[in-house]
């Protein structure tokens, strides 16, 4: 049975999309340790299951609730990730997308709220954005159902494509961090998620990842390594804290994607109110 995991920022239309893509809905209790309901549904085409994850802006959790997604990615092995993004808020939404692309399972992006983006005068070249990001992007309007069948087919297709073709995406974080990532990768166990993803999440301060890796990596060494890397990064011209430095690198990647694929035009219709 295929398992597609639905992820995205809060208020991007995840619940609307979940309802459009599934017909039977199995309530399966709460996520471990938190009071958030775990929703699993069967895809309308009966090809697999859809798991709804809590809305988050980044995988590094600010609360226990937000840690659900990281724990899920550490412990389960979803066939693919369906990432819902708000087309009118791409700059903010794509930070999570980058982290999902780094995880190493197939990703399909549902470009939702395209009606809203259009009203705001955003002209998104979906094909170009998809080429830039190296990920299938399907425009949808979750509220009306527009594009949802095509999206479901794409999510199923990505799940069953030859697994060996799916490798975690490699975005460049500059020489200091690349060195730190390599050092960490050499210490990490093979059996879990992509080592590069784990290393980056550790450097960002993702607590559930840190807790998980305590069994494999000497925590004293890890702490010292973190402090050392933090000091190196703060000495760079940017003079940033480690998580902010990582965030800025991602913002740069997103800027480049959007520069070539999104144009701001005058809204088609303006109202006086
Ligand atoms: P969630 O917080 O990610 O689960 O988002 P919801 O599914 O609850 O949607 C948030 C709000 O956006 C709701 O009022 C939806 O009706 C609305 N919404 C969802 N998708 C679309 C869309 O494609 N276009 C428009 N205009 N509104 C949408
Ligand atoms: K909501
Ligand atoms: Mg919701």
UniProtKB/TrEMBL annotation:
Top-level taxon: Bacteria
Compartments reported by the entry: Cell inner membrane; Cell membrane
Binding-site residues for Mg(2+) 1, renumbered to this chain: 22
Residues that hold Mg(2+) 2 according to the record: 19
Residue ranges occupied by any FeoB-type G domain in the UniProt entry: 1-161
Residues annotated to bind GTP: 8-15, 33-37, 52-55, 112-115
Family stated for the protein in its record: Belongs to the TRAFAC class TrmE-Era-EngA-EngB-Septin-like GTPase superfamily. FeoB GTPase (TC 9.A.8) family.
Job description of the protein: Probable transporter of a GTP-driven Fe(2+) uptake system.
Name of this chain's protein: Ferrous iron transport protein B
Organism: Cohnella pontilimi
């Amino acid at each position: 049975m295929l398992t597609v995991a639905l992820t995205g920022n809060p208020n991007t239309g995840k619940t609307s999309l979940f309802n459009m893509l599934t017909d039977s809905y199995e309530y399966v209790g709460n996520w471990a340790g938190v009071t958030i309901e775990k929703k699993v549904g069967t895809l309308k085409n009966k090809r697999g299951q859809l798991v709804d994850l809590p809305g988050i802006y980044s995988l590094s959790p600010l609360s226990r609730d937000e840690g659900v997604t990281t724990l899920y990615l550490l412990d389960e092995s979803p066939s693919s990730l369906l990432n819902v993004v708000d087309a009118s808020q791409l700059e903010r939404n794509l930070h999570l997308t980058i982290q999902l692309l780094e995880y190493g399972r197939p990703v399909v992006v549902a470009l939702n709220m395209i009606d809203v983006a259009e009203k705001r005068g955003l002209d998104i070249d979906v094909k170009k954005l998809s080429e830039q990001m190296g990920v299938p992007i399907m425009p949808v309007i979750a509220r009306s159902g527009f594009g949802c069948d095509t999206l479901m087919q794409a999510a199923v297709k990505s799940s069953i494509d030859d697994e060996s073709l799916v490798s975690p995406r490699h975005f460049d974080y500059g020489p200091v961090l690349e060195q730190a990532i390599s050092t960490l990768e050499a210490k990490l166990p093979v059996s879990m998620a992509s080592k590069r993803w784990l290393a980056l999440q550790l450097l960002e301060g993702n607590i559930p990842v840190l807790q998980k890796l305590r069994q494999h990596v000497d925590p004293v060494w890890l702490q010292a390594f973190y402090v050392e890397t933090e000091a190196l990064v703060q000495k760079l011209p940017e003079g940033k804290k480690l998580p902010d430095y990582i965030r800025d690198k991602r913002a740069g990647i997103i800027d480049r994607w959007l520069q070539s694929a999104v144009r701001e035009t005058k809204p088609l219709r303006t109202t006086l109110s």
